[in-house]
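Revision sheet: structure tokens.
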Amino acid sequence: QVQLVESGGGLVQPGGSLRLSCAASGSILRFNGMGWARQAPGQQRELVASISSGGSITYADSVKGRFTISRDNAKDTVYLRMNSLKPEDTAVYYCCARGRLTMLYNYWGQGTQVTVSS
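Predicted:
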């Protein structure tokens, strides 16, 4: 059974920074890719960053230039560094992963709350 556990969320002031971590129960190398998505109340879930098994990285336009996704295969962990945070970044952030046979993200963590407020 795949388990993804997020950590690092919290309250931060606008313009501040935060780093989220996603620890996987086993090697992340078995996944075709991993990513971070977020969902604010009343809004659709948005994939904000992804990294493929080959290292290809994508970002949503809303976070490009501010967020950085990275991974540490030895630690089975994926990170999301968030800089220059804005109030509209407030959301529950989910770690996700996709298996080798699909382009869909079919594994999800329970999420961690990020609140950007003064």
